[in-house]
Design goal:
Helices cover 73% and strands 10% of the residues. The chain has a domain at 199-318: Trna Endonuclease, Chain: A, domain 1 (3-Layer(aba) Sandwich), CATH 3.40.1350. The longest helix has 159 residues, at 40-198. It contains 9 helices and 7 strands. By secondary structure, the chain is α/β, with parallel strands linked by helices.
Length: 325
């Protein structure tokens, strides 16, 4: 046994000694403490481990409980939706049941109608059999009529050829008649123009005094001079050369002022004749540098021609050709 290095008089001396000799502390602990007390730190450590694991288990349990609550709420919502769908399906099942009942009633009525139709079909079959015999007789008649029709078609074809020949002849006659009509119209126009030219005083005397036919050569020479001077276009010159007749005279109110009449002669006067003589009167006035008026002469004046004459200030004179002219 080791001796104490110093005397122990107070508790502080004992504590100092134990601090200086750690081996004595262990020896003293084994004497003072029981085996249960000595194993207490290990047990406390194991208890702490168990508490730590319990805490982890509790955390996992809380997480599992939270997930269970979430699944429970989801299942609750699904159950509610299933309940709603079940109610909807019940309602639709009732509707389908009612519809099936209605369809059954309609099927019963249709079966009754089909039975009636079967009776009518049987009667129709009898009629068809009767009509078949009639059709056979009609087919015989059709065959007979077909032969007759063929003979008629041959006759009609011969008639068509004859009609075509007659139509060709009529076309030739119509062409000759049209040419003859054109020739007659041309001759009538020539007769009217000749009569107008020969009877200038009597035809135009109501419009101008001391009237006579103007010198066309003088008018055309002045027109060509203006064309060469660039004061008259080629189209205007050609328009002026188409004048049927130019009459010169004096105005009837004083008998002194000279005036020219640009005359258009047409068997039937229309609006086109009036427009032409109005244009030519304007050109004639420019060329001769004196007043000129358009005049149309014919045997008949259309309503459009009369309206155009009133608008353009063109005078019109109607003549009656004697028989034979």
């Amino acid at each position: 046994m080791e001796s104490f290095p110093r005397e122990l008089r107070t508790i502080e001396d004992l504590i100092a000694l134990l601090e200086a000799e750690p081996v004595w502390v262990e020896r003293l602990r084994s004497i003072l403490f029981t085996q249960g007390l000595l194993s207490l730190p290990d047990r406390v450590a194991r208890l702490e481990d168990l508490l730590q694991k319990q805490a982890e288990w509790m955390a996992r349990l809380s997480e599992l409980l939270a997930r269970y609550d979430e699944h429970l709420r989801a299942h609750t919502r699904q159950l509610e939706e299933y309940g709603r769908l079940l109610a909807e399906h019940g309602r639709r099942l009732e509707e389908h049941t009612q519809a099936i009942q209605e369809h059954s009633e309609r099927i019963a009525r249709l079966e009754q109608i089909i039975a009636q139709h079967d009776e009518r079909i049987a009667r129709l079959e009898e009629l068809v059999a009767q009509n078949t015999a009639r059709i056979e007789r009609l087919e015989e008649l059709v065959a007979q009529n077909t032969a007759r029709t063929q003979r008629l078609e041959e006759v009609i074809e011969e008639l068509r050829k004859l009609v075509q020949q007659q139509m060709q002849r009529l076309d030739i006659h119509e062409q000759r008649l049209n040419k003859l009509t054109d020739d007659v119209s041309f001759l009538k126009g020539m007769v009217l123009e000749i009569r107008t030219t020969l009877r200038i005083p009597s035809v135009f005397g109501r419009l101008v005094r001391r009237c006579r036919q103007a010198d066309m050569n003088e008018i055309f020479e002045r027109a060509y001079a203006l064309r060469e001077a660039g004061q008259l276009t080629q189209e205007e010159l050609q328009e002026l050369l188409q004048l049927d007749l130019v009459v010169e005279g004096r105005l009837p109110h004083d008998g002194q002022m000279p005036i020219l009449l640009a005359v258009e002669i047409s068997f039937v006067i229309d609006a086109g004749d009036v427009e032409r003589t109005a244009r030519r009167a304007t050109l004639l006035s420019r060329v001769m540098e004196q007043p000129a008026q358009g005049v149309v002469v014919g045997t008949r004046l259309t309503a459009e021609g009369q309206e155009a004459a009133a608008e353009r200030g063109v005078a019109w004179i109607l003549q009656v050709l004697p028989r034979g002219d």
